Amino acid sequence: MTSLYESLLLKLANVVELATQDQGPFTPQAKQALVRSTKDFKDSVKEAHEYATTLPGGELSVEEQDDVIDMLEKLKERKRRQLADFAERVDSISTSAANSQADVKMEVDSNASTPA
Predict the structure, then answer these.
(1) Residue 21 and residue 30 in contact, taking contact as beta carbons nearer than 8 Å
(2) How far apart are the C-alpha atoms of 80 and 67, rounded to whole Å?
(3) Furthest-apart CA atoms within the chain: distance in Å
(4) Rounded distance, CA 73 to CA 71, Å?
(5) What is the pTM of this model?
């Protein structure tokens, strides 16, 4: 789809170039080339228009699109904060679990080395 939009300028330039060539009166071949080039450009514009009008949210105004973008950015930031909080809690649980295991190991070691 992107290549379609990128090709529009080249196709328009081709039409303008064919229309403004300095050959004196238009020959039948030049007229046909201009007609073909113009039709190709017109078809591409029509196809690009169809793509643009069928995009999800394409019916929204610019202001409505900006509102949706703002809402999505806020949602993304909230999710990012939730993920950071979750990661922090997991880290603290892991740290406390590691400390508990170290305490248990020390307890076992001290019991094992005590003479009976």
Answers:
(1) yes
(2) 20
(3) 118
(4) 5
(5) 0.50
Q: Is 107 helix (H, G, I), strand (E, B) or coil?
A: helix
pLDDT in tens, the chain (116 residues): 678 888 999 999 999 998 888 766 778 888 899 999 999 999 999 999 888 888 887 778 889 989 999 999 999 999 999 999 999 999 888 887 766 665 555 555 555 556 65
Dig out the tokens for 97 from the structure: 């679990």
As given in the structure block, the two tokens for residue 112 are: 């094992």
**Residues 44 and 81 sit within 8 Å (Cβ to Cβ):** no
C-alpha 18/C-alpha 83 separation (Å) is 59
